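Students often ask why we bother encoding 3D structure as a string. The short answer is that it lets us treat folding as translation between two languages. Here is a chain of 135 residues written in the first language.
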Amino acid sequence: MWPADIPPALCRKARPSAATYTTSRDTIEAVGAWIESRRLGERDYLFPSRVHTKPHLSTRQYSRVVERWVSSIGLDPKRYGTHSMRRTKAAHIYKKTGNLRAVQLLLGHKKLESTVQYLGIEVDDALAISEQVEL
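And here it is in the second language, the structure alphabet:
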């Protein structure tokens, strides 16, 4: 099974300022089971493409998969997509903690203003909260 010592915080290296995200133990175990069932190795993509000329799932293919999942549970796929999941997690963290700097770090934003705009919060509120947080 998936190694027990894998930390739930992983790093995405899609761009120079990597964004950190957390994963539940259940998700880690499900991904581990997927890797075992597919007999994937270190060099294999987690989600290979069905198109044989491409090695991995494209962003469009991923979007279609999410659209089908959302539809299958009775939700409107126009309201829920791949990006809304990322934004929702960040918004929940901000709402629960009020820690804008933490959200900025998790999203990999260089500028606090980018995080403020991303979350759709007022600049004055964001700066007031940010000033309360000491690092």
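Translate back mentally: Residues 66 and 81 are 6 Å apart (CA to CA). Keep this in mind for the problem set.
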